[in-house]
Amino acid sequence: MNDQASTFQEFRFEHSPMFLEILQHCRCSLLVSTYQAGKLAVIGAHQGKLEVSLHHFDQAMGVALHHRGLAVASKSQIWFLQSVPAMASQIQPAGKYDACYLARQSHLTGEIHLHEIAWGKQHLWMVNTLFSTLATIHEDYSYVPRWRPKFISELAAEDRCHLNGVAMIDGEPRFVTAMGETNSAAGWRAEKSNGGVVIDIHTDRVVARGLAMPHSPRYFENQLWVLDSGRGSLSRVSSSSDKAEEIVQLPGYTRGLAFSGQFAFVGLSKIRESAVFSGLPIQEAFPDLNCGIGIVDLVSGKNVAAFQFKTGVDEIFDVQVLPQSLLPAIVGPQDDAEKSTHQWLVPPPEFVPQLDQKISRSVFTLPESDRSLPVEFAQQDPAALLRRGLELHIKGELKEAVKSFQAAIAIRADFADAYINLGNVYQDLNDTKLAVDCYHQALRIDPNSVNALRNLGYVLKEQGETSEGEQHLHRAQKLEFNPTIEFVLATSLPPVYASRQHMHHCREKLEHNLETLTKTGFKLDVTRQAASTNFYSAYQGLNDRHLQKQIAQLLVAPQPQLKKQEPSQGRRRIGLISRYFRNHTIGRLNLGTVQNLPRDLFEVFVISVGTHHDQLAQEFSAAADQFVSLPTRLEKIREAVVALDLDVLLFTDVGMDTLTYSLSMSRLAPVQCVTWGHPVTTGSPVMDYFISSDTAEGFDSEQHYSEQLKKFRVLNVFYHRPSEPAARDHAYFKLDPTRNVYLCFQSLFKFHPDFDEILVGILKKDPQGDLVLMEGRYPAWTQALQDRLRPQLGTDLARVKFLPPQSHADFLSLHRLADVSLDPLHFGGGNTTYEALSIGLPVVTLPSEFLRCRLTYAMYQQMGINDLVVNSPKEFVELAVRLGTNKTYRQQMSEKILDHASLLFSDTRAIEDYTAFFSTVNNG
């Protein structure tokens, strides 16, 4: 147990050992508001010990996180604390804190009973409980009312329904909690034990009823969560009913909820002895209630760790997870008396003239892009901040890198390089809109910025705006020739084609460009700079062996000196390398192999390019004899892999990632092989084997590979059968339950123009059918496919439903709702088919000549099923529609798949064949 005192009153706490371990594992700290004690508590870790500090805010309530800082709601005002990372090192003891938040200003709201607050795209939203309304702040007003429940007839300072919590989705408020559907002063109190509701503010629909004083609605992992406070429960709201499903009950009045990874952090409070809180169900379940934090493992649904205030704090309101910070420092607004040091943020004298020229912006101004936000930082040189941002980017600390680049821009508004690098980080954060904004801003500052032109060209080209992207790249080449850009331009292909003719034109252009580069003696050195992959050509349905070999001949790669001359005596050293040993298709396809290779024969090295922290990454780390996480620098990766002194190096995928593609051109082990994570030959002269299977390869398939083809008896995958998906109804995915669902939830670059005939045929043959697809990674992809289908479908295009990418759990649930899955032509499913078959969903497939459209066929061969394999597009349409419209036949096929599933999942023959191959293969 730890003791710690504050000036105002003593407080003591205790915690379970797992509580500290989980904070360290998630690399986060907690901000906990406790209005009864008037404190904001910081709970973090330092040097293996839990650290807790309390900071005074009068009746501290809601806490809102923003990348620029914090907002804390108090009795009659909202305080704004600015993130000042550089100041953390100035606070004693040195090295203790990894973040700092400095109180800068406040907004006076008056006593409106503020509860939760949350940052949106353009506003700070607040729950104004006294007036039963969602509101925003404005410098000229106490608050601006924005929404109130439909049963609240007017704005009145009467706390009519005790509106208290708000859940945000995509920067907008979406759900709220209230303690009753009442329209009279404090009317909710009469039904506090079961009158609580969750309301969808977009539709004014109550999505959950019967709650006891609910709080803290949160939208996490595509699910709506809520605390049924009076029952002490963490609950999940189903879209199919107006009830909340209890996940776990905890020993306290639950209020305050935040998430990190698989964990939920739930605030627990004792109950005051008053009429308001009397008679609640939690008092019957737990005679003695705790005040603190419970951690719930969402996988098991159990309370796995606890923190408890023993004295000084009895009630908690809000809990927020502060990611990427183990122990932040809070400075102000009121320091505790025993603190002997103070902190000030002051611009250096040389920057004062620049500040006078700027328009002062307040915290209330929230433009759509962060690029124009002035951020005050400690007294640092912009160039130093730029260097710091670059270092953080390399380390993978992306959010901290953003802050550093923004700080440089705040000090020097015309810093084009800072904008460029900020855009690069936004790319890694998958926010291409902000990345494009940053590159455009850099070009406004410097129209001839080669790096801005290059990066903007890359992004636009990837988004499907190929022509505009190439224009920027060509302009950059005229300003400063770069062989890497020349290579990108030569191998550029669009992700979605306008027509079959467009595809063939692009293929001819690619072949012509490669011939030109070859004739001119072009070479690209990939010692330090990665080469772009020829990714999209694989989706054209043609033999890429010649292309891949031709491209490989254009690349110059270092060939390190290997130490090993003969195979290891004793256990052979086997390495698997990828950038995707995480929650990804490649991770799911290869985890079983790592776990099951016999350790009496092999020492297994998992080589992860880049650092990953999700559950699957942790399972790889646990399964490997040695797990090696490498930085994303080619020269460092090569050195590290060679130093492992491997006998065999298996690339689980080559062609999806520039780093591993460039690495595949170097000899890093005596024997190098590749398998079908990306099912196309590499063309590399130092790749010895391509591992496939007899069931997946067709006649004369050796002609498809530059490597020696090694065929196992079955697919070389030990695939763990996925767990049963959660039950979801059609409404959850905004689908009509009366319609037949033809599902093809694949990336849109798999939609070959030849596939259109099948898609159109299904919709024409089944008027009651809908085609359900996944939105493109970028809107332009979706638009391109819609434009291609529109002339053939006309008004039936409305029956093509595009859904956003789903979490893995919802992906499986969506397949459970489908009537039939469609395997795309020329490049079919792999992992997707495994998951569909695991729940008995029939997948119709038309195998082609090449491996990339024979994986579903191979799975059926492994299972001894041929009913769902067709020989022509016409047969494809007929079989798909039969499955979609004939429930009895569909059920028969589903049962047959499930009866034979044991032959597909966890097949030890794949491990046996790997064992035989790895045991006998010698230097290639």
Description:
With 924 residues, this protein is of the alpha/beta class. Helix content is 29%, strand content 26%. The protein contains 24 helices and 41 strands. A seven-stranded parallel beta sheet has the order 32-31-30-33-34-35-36, with helices on both faces. A six-stranded antiparallel beta sheet has the order 1-2-25-24-23-22, with helices on one face. The chain has a five-stranded mixed beta sheet with strand order 6-7-8-9-27, with no helix packed on it. The longest helix is centred in the middle third of the chain and has 20 residues, at 500-519. It starts with a strand and ends with a helix. The model is unreliable at 1-8, 337-341 and 350-379 (pLDDT under 50).
What is the overall number of helices? 24
The rough form would be described as globular
The total count of strands amounts to: 41
Q: Radius of gyration, Cα only, in angstroms?
A: 30 Å
DSSP strand (E) fraction? Answer: 25-35%
Secondary structural class? alpha/beta
Reported for the largest beta sheet, the result is: 7 strands, parallel
Biggest sheet: strands side by side, in what order? 32-31-30-33-34-35-36
Mean pLDDT, all residues = 89
